[in-house]
Amino acid sequence: MKKVSILGATGSIGTSTIDVLNRYPEKFAVRAVTAYSNVQKLADAAKKTNAEVAVIGDAKLFGELQEALNARQLKTIAKAGEKAIVEEAADPDAEIVVGAIVGAAGIASTFASAKAGKRLLLANKESVVCGGRLLMDTIKAHGAQLLPVDSEHNAVFQCLESASEKMRQSHRIILTASGGPFRKRMDLSTVTVEEATHHPNWSMGKKITVDSATLMNKGLEVIEARWLFDTPEDRIDVVVHPQSIIHSMVQYEDGVVLAQLGAPDMRNTIAYCLGYPERLNAGVKPLDFSSIHGLTFEKPDTKRFPQLAYAYEALRRGGCSCIMLNAVNEIAVENFLKGKIRFIDIPKICEVMMLSASEHAPKSLEDVLEADKEARILTQEYISGYTGE
Ligand SMILES: NC(=O)C1=CN([C@@H]2O[C@H](COP(=O)(O)OP(=O)(O)OC[C@H]3O[C@@H](n4cnc5c(N)ncnc54)[C@H](OP(=O)(O)O)[C@@H]3O)[C@@H](O)[C@H]2O)C=CC1
Ligand SMILES: CC(=O)[C@@H](O)[C@H](O)COP(=O)(O)O
Ligand SMILES: [Mn+2]
Q1: N or C end of the chain: smaller count of CB under 10 Å?
Q2: Which PANTHER family match (predicted)?
């Protein structure tokens, strides 16, 4: 029996993880479930998983969480505060940690799991984008194991599995992108929050869905791939594949391409990571090729969606550029979701703000967190005086 902790248990990935775990009660038990503010959903997650511990990130909600657990007659121990989440990420009782917090809020817990030598099933791409080489070194130094949950990186991981060290040195990564809801829309100036939060193929949280619509998600994934697979950015390509059936590909020296295909349902990816190296059935309907009427491919349009180009640029610039771009994007998306800026302002703000990143690469987790914090303050100040011109 393996013990699992789910950080971000109330979100889209968290919910899918619980769904998969509940298919295998004989293989897995749950140590902890965490959330930030959604107390009722967290208590429901504790009930569904029979978790030993439930942690709410917002410390003010401790009493409410305790009540919600009592109301469900659970023995689950209530904890609260961001520090408690980080402690659970490293708790010796959990063998597997699922990192499904959204945004840079997941950085500290990802590092904590890495330092504790966990098997880390990581969906939180922002912690790879910001932690970069430092995170990969930390994982190595502490004997942790990172299994990528992000569908593209999981696909690449599977395509690289049988590759020798030599083959790995010459591979190219081809990340597929759906192109988002505005792939064919020429005028982006009137995009609404409602439109930007509906992905054509995947059901996901709001932040990543907006990122898919701007192609920032693909940009973050290029950075993520750079570090996860130790592949320089000039060997990472992006191709638009609107059907989201090929999850990504690897091309070897002889030109041959391996691809991983599946239904666009994250339960497959999560099950792969939970069972690794065994394969677990997530209960997702397998692909029916006779009902697929074509797999198509296009070049990404970086004129309409420049965020993808900014990600490559941030990698080339180095220093704290990726941390900066990630933080600026998070603040811009937050403001867009609140109706304070337009969809087309998101890349405009990123373009300006990413230039103020420090050229010194972070040397510690504290440096990463400090750079992220500063970037947020600067961006919020910039947006406060922003007129859109
Ligand atoms: N959804 C998907 O299919 C995919 C997601 N990913 C990545 O996985 C991560 C999670 O995405 P997704 O599940 O869609 O996101 P959701 O918005 O659905 O869920 C986010 C989770 O994080 C918690 N959370 C939010 N803010 C904080 C905070 N400050 N401290 C602690 N916990 C916090 C939320 O708690 P609460 O509910 O209380 O707010 C919730 O449990 C992201 O990094 C995303 O890019 C990658 C590939 C696919
Ligand atoms: C499911 C997943 O991994 C998402 O990152 C998804 O790939 C988003 O789709 P886009 O290709 O539109 O960014
Ligand atoms: Mn993805």
Answers
A1: C
A2: 1-DEOXY-D-XYLULOSE 5-PHOSPHATE REDUCTOISOMERASE, 1-DEOXY-D-XYLULOSE 5-PHOSPHATE REDUCTOISOMERASE, CHLOROPLASTIC
